[in-house]
Amino acid sequence: MKENTFLLIGPFRQLITMADLPDKGALTDDLLQPVIEAGILMEDEKIYKVGIFSELIKEAQTLHAAIIQLNEDVVAIPGFIDAHTHICFAGSRANDYAMRNAGKSYLEIAAAGGGIWDTVQHTRKASMEELAALTLQHANRHLQEGITTIEVKSGYGLSAAAELKILKAIKKAAEQTPADLIPTCLAAHILPKDYNGTHEDYLQEISHQLFPMIIEEQLTTRIDAFIEEGAFAAEQITPYFTKAKELGFHLTVHADQFHPSGSAVAVQFAAVSADHLEASGEKEIQLLAKSNVVPIALPGASIGLGVAFAPARRLLDAGASLAIASDWNPGSAPMGDLLTQAAILGTFEKLSNAEVLAGITYRAANALQCSDRGKIQQGLLADFIVFPTNNYQEILYQQGRLKPTQVWKRGKLINDYLNPSSTENNRAYFASSRLSGNYSSNNNSLIQP
Predict the structure, then answer these.
(1) Domain limits of the chain?
(2) Which of 17, 80, 150, 438 could serve as 429's disulfide partner, Cβ 3.0–4.6 Å?
(3) What is the C-alpha to C-alpha distance for residues 119 and 59, in angstroms, rounded to an integer?
(4) CATH class label, 81-367
(5) Where does the Amidohydrolase-related domain lie (predicted)?
(6) Coil, strand or helix at 13
(7) Could you tell me which residues are beta bridge partners of residue 150?
(8) Residues in CB range of 106: below 8 A, 6 or more apart
(9) pTM of model > 0.85
């Protein structure tokens, strides 16, 4: 006998689906159109139907669906997507932070033994298993905050062997967390200090040695490069990206962080995204707006470095898309709190709730070419999160203080990964092979078919 695979949950005081919104350009909050007293009917890991909870009950009963009836003020929105992180690393750069706040420059910090190279040394020393455990720890912290899909870069190995180890660690971590980890190879991060050749020699070595191993072991389909003074120049990256494209990789670029330097390359190679953009000028903004490249703002790096934010408002007004990511890394963006950073970016760049939420849901999904998520919509993955409020505006208004009390990933409730303090009043655990834990809330009720 086939196991019942349908589950209905609701009513949500508001349900923000993010459905039918444009992929590019400015958004106003009236476009969100919350569904009131809504329900989500799931089949296995996908959304079967969305609508008014009371109207879905009859269909759910016909399907012999289990029904979770919520008797409290809650809002549901799509699971967050962090499209740019560096969470596979070892070591700490707390001393860099102190030196930076004391007025030391990047070069002075590097000369004192800090900077990216410090993280490279710690990461090289760590075993693959140790890196996988650290990545898993970071991913599950993200999961606690409602981030159900996480892009994870390599880039702290800076040799073919070390980069391969990092990508294997990301793969191992991905097998142990409910979150989806999207790996990216960032071997073109900086020229390693212990490399004796030129930038061109290093990139050629990586493309000839590492790329075939990545393909053979199916470790990633994505290649990134840091185009910036002190990292790699556009003309150095051109043959590297050309080789990557020939092999079928999708490209993304660390662009325009300190100087207008990489967005033109992103457009030239039809990259899926151009990330950072703090130094993008009008020329770069217009170039990105006329392309299909998704600009990704990284407010965590601006906060960590004390520099200006990416010109998010101008990008949107020019007709570009905009994703927002945490850039969680040990150096410039150690906070890793996507919701807080996105809310702060919205404050400084005068973004609507719709623009910020789009940036951490479906537009972030577009940046990762994950068309099966980012919206609460029929046929897409049942990735959504639930907040203890009756007004979706509270989510960004509270700038990260309001935490999700339910996280649903691929149709499964994964509250076992949440901070117990955040779920004290709403532990929606449900005894089923589809869900983690036990359903035992005083406020909510489970109706078996």
Answers:
(1) 6-79+373-447, 81-367
(2) 438
(3) 54
(4) alpha beta
(5) 76-413
(6) strand
(7) 82, 181
(8) 115, 230
(9) yes
